[in-house]
Amino acid sequence: MPYSTAQTAATRMWQALGGDDLSLATLSFTGDGALPSRFPVTDFAAPAWAAAALAVADLAEERPGAATLAVDRRLASLWFQWSLLPIGWKSAGAWDVVSGDYAARDGWVRLHANAPHHRAAALRVLGVSPEKDAVARAVARLAAAEVEAAVVAAGGCAAQMRSMAEWAVHPQGQAIAAEPLVHYAASDVAAPPSAWAPRAERPLAGVRVLDLTRVLAGPIATRFLAGYGAEVLRIDPLEWDEGPVIPEVTLGKRCARLDLATAAGRDTFLGLLGQADVLVHGYRATALEHLGLGDEVRRAVAPGLVDVRLNAYGWTGPWRDRRGFDSLVQMSCGIAAAGQDWQGADRPVPLPVQALDHGTGYLMAAAAVRGLALRRQAGRGSTWRLSLARTAHELVSLPQQDDDTAPIAAAADADYAPDIEDTPWGQVRRLLPPVQIEDVPLRWSSGARALGSDPAAWAS
User: Fold this and answer.
1) 209: Cβ–Cβ under 8 A, 6 or more apart, which residues?
2) What does the pLDDT read at residue 94?
3) Which of 53, 91, 383, 456 has its CA 20 to 30 A from that of 134?
4) Is the preceding peptide bond at 210 cis, omega within 30 degrees of 0?
């Protein structure tokens, strides 16, 4: 059966979202080749896009399987890399000089230092200046587990490389294996009456999405929602910066800043939340509780809210509050070690793209749209929980990719839409959408913009 792995993955994702099997009958995949990897990344990327698009198609038609849906596997893979093509300018590198994989005394450890406070924590633990060689020498004197534990305890981000077998018996690995890919719970509070209804060509027009997410999964989710008409208002802390990632992920959004640690910031946020349909957030499990914005507060302010939440290492187990990113989870759960074995390399080999971030992002978008559909049907809000580590568990459980699979072709001029997008950094072109829903185009009403460009208020 052609694209059997993609079909299997799509079925599992859609069922995890509570989707009707009738919708799957309208889904088809096209495109040859795959991203080179020990794991079927391309046949994971395309189904992740498909899950989000299936949710939109069902919402637009308001009945399962009413619209046909095609997904281009190659374009889906390219979107898992970088969607924009700068015209006459270059994007800066994505990684801080301290971020990377380091050989410890007994194995490998990865440091994630893109955020200034995470970088400072790692350097403080190692007692060195921010120079790659100095960091490498300090790590080489220590055990990998020692570096991981000390950096995490200091408020930084680090991950020891473990094998898949080691992760399977680790307490957090066992907790992840017992979690669903997507956890769903309906609110016990009835939603207030709403006049909103999906429009045929712009299904999410009139939907307000409050975005409290950072690199990379959450912003991908809300970028997708904006592409089908949602009004997305992204809220960042006063000094937060994501560097070269910003033009990639702020497409179609408005971007404001608030200090949620202050009473004034919380009051403004709660005012916005009371008018929101969807909240997407990527804080650690108890972080909003500590800010006085916990579940009970959010339900009281917005009883019909579709609340989509993400964390790195899952919602149960000893690491549920641990900071993490895609590259760290790949080290923890055995993906980087399996890649090293597959290539016969002398160092960790991660996935060719940040597939955990991207895949989880599209599943989060699907969850948001499913929540809107269920609210229309049952008159209640809902809570959805996803994690990078559980997405990793899903990816590695798929059939292994054949070593002789031809690689996908690199992005060419014809893969980009002809429209020119103006951004604060310069003009860009975007890749063509990899999904085609019958009579429901994916398009953005505005280009990428800088963080903090807008007031903390809804536009409409």
Assistant:
1) 222, 225, 226, 230, 231, 232, 233, 276, 277, 278, 279, 280, 368
2) 76
3) 91
4) no
pLDDT band at residue 402 under the 50/70/90 scheme: confident
Quick: pLDDT tens for 115-130: 999 999 999 999 999 9
The CATH number that applies at residue 395 is: 3.40.50.10540
Q: Is residue 242 part of a domain?
A: yes
Domain count, the chain: 1
Whole-number Å distance between alpha carbons of 219 and 207: 17
Q: 79 in a domain, yes or no? A: yes
- 3-state SS, residue 416: strand
Closest by Cα among 12, 10, 2, 5 to 54: 10
Mean pLDDT of the chain: 95
Q: What domain range includes position 57?
A: 4-91+176-314+353-437
Distance between CA atoms of residues 375 and 369, nearest Å: 10
- Positive or negative, the CA dihedral 334, 338, 344, 348 is negative
- Per-residue pLDDT tens digits for 20-41: 998 999 999 999 999 999 999 9
Return left, alpha or beta for 424; rule: phi > 0 is left, psi -120 to 50 is alpha, else beta: alpha
* Phi, psi (deg, nearest 5) at residue 173: -60, -40
**pLDDT at position 189, please?**
87
